[in-house]
Design brief:
Rossmann fold, 17% strand, 18 helices, 559 residues, 7-stranded mixed β-sheet, 6-stranded antiparallel β-sheet, alpha+beta, binds S-adenosylmethionine, 2 domains
């Protein structure tokens, strides 16, 4: 591995996904530029070379947050050693509660925030997703502005950074159980006097009914009885009363089309039960409503007709097996010929219990940071702002040279059409996201989301972001793309007047926990993502070289 800092001397060109680099090695002190209130570049650099945990700068002391910490998250505020990036933990607790698309591991977020932003400094994540960066920043006592265009992402993040207590959730769940459980379970009643846990359907015909057997909870598989058929017919014509019609586009990659309705995705019975739950959630105390609705979004995929049957192999072992197992809603709106209808109450209960467990684990380590808006966070009067908007519209409102670290995982070209895939969640939350402002490449022609527009938007983001950074600020992009075209936005990064002076520090491969759900297994997908680090000051971040796989060159992603 080559050591020493490299800056992008002029344009970098990608050819066949291999970057033709025009990288000019610069001596460590080659670049000037003041560092607002943080001493000289040399001292800044020295601070980067300090052992982890001793990197509190003068500016940080001046800007020390008014975090009202009750207790800290002891295991999380401990600076992680660089090698944790090579062996990240599986998503646990609140991070595991919802299957937001494209989640990034917490370890690199934590490590880089700790390394590249002083305590009290300002972190911005303009493509926030499920909010991992925001929580990590808050735990590390940095101020943070998180932005996402997806209401689901923003509402999940707000809960993540300000979770309800287990007591509130417990009580809320008891209340929902008292009023809705019986009515819901009645819709799954069987001749055996037990509610069905699952039905197996094939091409619209019910093939099997599953129950659990008393104490042992082992599975009983039955042929559908007349009662089972009569019950399903009772709900067959159910029309959603409060859920809005979903908005889908013609996207064969995710099996969606504008004519797709909720009735295509759910049985009438499931829709009726989902709406029953929503009605009961409306009657809960304010503090409990949002987490319960979010629990419903987390469970809704498993309540749909998109849960496939795993046959011929064990679900976890992969070894051949006669036993049919329940798959999960994975990606897109594919409705398999053979699918499960899972008991809605069971799905909901499981999710809520998972949430209760996750917040109970946190309770002994509750952190109370002050929520605010963009101006109050910038002024140091609040700790965080989680904002639902187009980042290209909001970022310009940040004062120039005010941000210590932009750390973000932007949409990767045509990898994941977030809003299209989040539509079921946004329907549950009664949100109508602005599809037109999403930065993405979509196969849905009617959206007009093509690569050139994506590249232009990403270049605009880079240009604004670099203007907002302090003279010693950093930009970290988690990125990968399957096509050369999707890397193009990096080309002009160093060429415009506004972005002049950004130095490419290096990159490292992102490692995912083998135990975490990988939502995109295609070649060139998640497992080969990179963290790319850029700096306003030259020759910074030497200590990043401790990160396993760190390279001073640009990545050469595989097709
Ligand atoms: C790769 S995901 C982020 C995932 C995140 N790192 C996580 O761990 O969950 C990219 C995010 O960019 C958001 N996004 C797309 N266009 C946007 C825009 N114009 N402004 C703000 N956010 C946008 C998407 O909604 C999506 O949540």
């Amino acid at each position: 591995m080559e050591h020493g800092s490299l800056s992008w001397g002029g344009r970098a060109r990608f050819v066949g996904l291999v970057l033709e680099q025009n990288l000019t090695p610069r001596p460590p002190d080659a670049c000037g530029g003041g560092i607002r209130g943080r001493g000289s570049i040399a001292s800044r650099r020295r601070s980067l070379l300090l052992p982890l945990g001793r990197q509190i700068t003068n500016r940080a002391n001046a800007l020390r947050l008014k975090f009202s910490m009750q207790l800290t998250f002891p295991e999380l505020v401990t600076p992680p050693p660089a090698n944790t990036l090579a062996d990240p933990a599986a998503y646990r607790g609140l991070y595991a509660f919802h299957k937001y698309w494209g989640k990034k591991p917490a370890e690199p977020m934590r490590y880089l925030i700790q390394q590249l932003c002083p305590e009290g400094g300002l972190v911005v994540d303009p493509f926030l997703g499920s909010g991992i960066s925001a929580l990590e920043a808050i735990q590390l006592k940095r101020r943070v502005v998180g932005i996402d265009i997806n209401p689901t992402a923003v509402r999940l993040t707000r809960m993540l950074v300000s979770p309800p207590t287990a007591t509130v959730l417990d009580e809320a769940f008891r209340r929902v159980s008292a009023v809705a459980k019986e009515a819901i379970l009645e819709s799954y009643a069987t001749a055996q006097k037990k509610p069905a846990t699952h039905y197996v359907w094939r091409n619209g015909v019910m093939e099997k009914v599953w129950l659990t057997n008393g104490e042992s909870r082992s599975r009983v598989e039955l042929q559908p009885s007349e009662q089972d058929i009569a019950l399903v017919e009772r709900f067959a014509s159910y029309q959603p009363q409060r859920l809005r019609a979903p908005r889908f586009f013609t996207n064969s990659r995710i099996n969606s089309s504008p004519s797709l309705t909720l009735k295509d995705l759910f049985t009438g019975r499931a829709l009726r039960n989902i709406e029953l739950l929503l009605a009961e959630i409306d009657d809960l105390p304010d503090a409990a409503q949002e987490p319960m609705r979010l629990a419903l979004t987390a469970a809704v995929g498993q309540m749909s007709k998109m849960v496939f049957a795993i046959t011929g192999r064990g679900k976890t072992t992969g070894a051949s097996s006669e036993k049919m197992e329940v798959g999960s809603w994975v990606i897109g709106y594919w409705r398999p010929e053979q699918h499960f209808e899972v008991n809605v109450w069971n799905c909901f209960e499981r999710r809520v219990q998972k949430l209760i467990k996750a917040v109970a684990e946190l309770e002994s380590a509750q952190i109370t940071a002050k929520a605010g808006q963009l101006p109050t966070v910038c002024a140091g009067d609040a700790d965080y702002a989680i904002l639902n908007d187009d980042c290209l519209a909001l970022l310009p409102q940040l004062p120039n040279k005010s941000v210590d670290l932009v750390i973000t995982d932007p949409p990767h070209g045509d990898r994941i059409p977030y809003l299209e895939l989040s539509e079921m969640w946004n329907v549950i939350l009664d949100e109508e996201p602005p599809f037109e402002s999403e930065i993405v490449v979509s196969n849905a022609k009617e959206r007009g989301k093509k690569t050139p527009a994506y590249n232009e938007a990403m270049s605009r983001f880079l240009e604004i972001a670099s203007r907002k950074l302090t003279d010693s600020g950093f930009l970290v992009l988690f990125f990968n793309a399957r096509t050369e075209a999707s890397w193009k936005f990096l080309e002009g990064f160093n060429s415009s007047a506004d972005t002049a002076g950004m130095t490419y520090c290096g990159c490292f491969p992102l490692v995912y926990s083998a135990a975490s759900v990988v939502q995109d297994n295609r070649d060139g997908a998640l497992r080969t993502d990179y963290g790319l680090v850029f700096s306003r000051a030259a020759a910074a971040a030497h200590s990043l070289a401790d990160i396993p796989g760190w390279a001073f060159t640009l990545p050469t992603p595989k097709e």
